[in-house]
From TrEMBL:
<dbReference type="GO" id="GO:0042981">
    <property type="term" value="P:regulation of apoptotic process"/>
</dbReference>
<dbReference type="GO" id="GO:0006915">
    <property type="term" value="P:apoptotic process"/>
</dbReference>
<dbReference type="InterPro" id="IPR001370">
    <property type="entry name" value="BIR_rpt"/>
</dbReference>
<keyword id="KW-0677">Repeat</keyword>
<keyword id="KW-0053">Apoptosis</keyword>
<dbReference type="InterPro" id="IPR050784">
    <property type="entry name" value="IAP"/>
</dbReference>
<protein>
    <submittedName>
        <fullName>BIRC2 isoform 13</fullName>
    </submittedName>
</protein>
<dbReference type="Pfam" id="PF00653">
    <property type="entry name" value="BIR"/>
</dbReference>
<dbReference type="GO" id="GO:0005737">
    <property type="term" value="C:cytoplasm"/>
</dbReference>
Length: 262
């Protein structure tokens, strides 16, 4: 696992003790992953280990105070200071929020992150980074299972993580924000009537993941009528007798005759 990615760090907190007064998300954002022992966490970058968390503790401040030379925490703090001067455009029905600086520095997310703005069609927030020079493809999220595992803090009940994962999306937050592992496109502000795959296709029609899905679909649909041996055998009615291969052999191997030469 690449713990420089905030999502991977978050995934280690599934057995984190419930009574700890500091949130798993704030710990992951500060560079820490869970060691599995009590409430002890460790920084992926400098190796600092902390435990015995108290009410009011700030993981970022503690990290900075106890290991100020950690390059991750230095980048995080400077990025946070920089982001306060940026103007973010508020989104209708949503939040005015720029992406967590931790994610900007992670190896999993590549691309340009601008502040979110409403889509003119509706309140759906769409971010398309396919035009950027960096390759948005995420190998780590290329399996449906890996994408599904990112949804343990998914806030919506009307749209299932399994449907989103099947449509190529993994969860990045905040709120209901997801990203496609293949094209890097991001969507948020989901509504109850939304279908994840349809929205993906509508907003990011050139996504390579969708093109592959369509090819698979076309293949399976075009061949449904030829799935049985008997159906394939019937196509060989006008098979040229001069051809040395028997129709029976071809039909058994999955072939059917389309009637153009052999």
């Amino acid at each position: 696992y690449d713990f420089s990615c905030e999502l991977y760090r978050m995934s280690t907190y599934s057995t984190f003790p419930a009574g700890v007064p500091v949130s798993e998300r704030s710990l992951a954002r500060a560079g820490f992953y869970y060691t599995g022992v009590n409430d002890k966490v460790k920084c992926f970058c400098c190796g600092l280990m902390l435990d015995n968390w108290k009410l009011g503790d700030s993981p970022i401040q503690k990290h900075k105070q106890l290991y100020p030379s950690c390059s991750f925490i230095q980048n995080l703090v400077s990025a946070s200071l920089g982001s306060t001067s940026k103007n973010t455009s508020p989104m209708r029905n949503s939040f005015a929020h720029s992406l967590s600086p931790t994610l900007e520095h992670s190896s999993l997310f590549s691309g340009s992150y601008s502040s979110l703005s409403p889509n003119p069609l509706n309140s759906r927030a769409v971010e398309d980074i396919s035009s950027s020079r960096t390759n948005p493809y995420s190998y780590a999220m290329s399996t449906e299972e890996a994408r599904f595992l990112t949804y343990h803090m998914w806030p919506l009940t009307f749209l299932s993580p399994s449907e989103l994962a099947r449509a190529g999306f993994y969860y990045i937050g905040p709120g209901d924000r997801v990203a496609c592992f293949a094209c890097g496109g991001k969507l948020s502000n989901w509504e109850p009537k939304d279908d994840a795959m349809s929205e993906h296709r509508r907003h990011f029609p050139n996504c390579p993941f969708l093109e592959n899905s369509l090819e698979t679909l076309r293949f399976s649909i075009s061949n449904l009528s030829m799935q049985t041996h008997a159906a394939r055998m019937r196509t060989f009615m006008y098979w040229p007798s001069s051809v040395p291969v028997q129709p029976e052999q071809l039909a058994s191997a999955g072939f059917y005759y389309v009637g153009v030469s052999s």
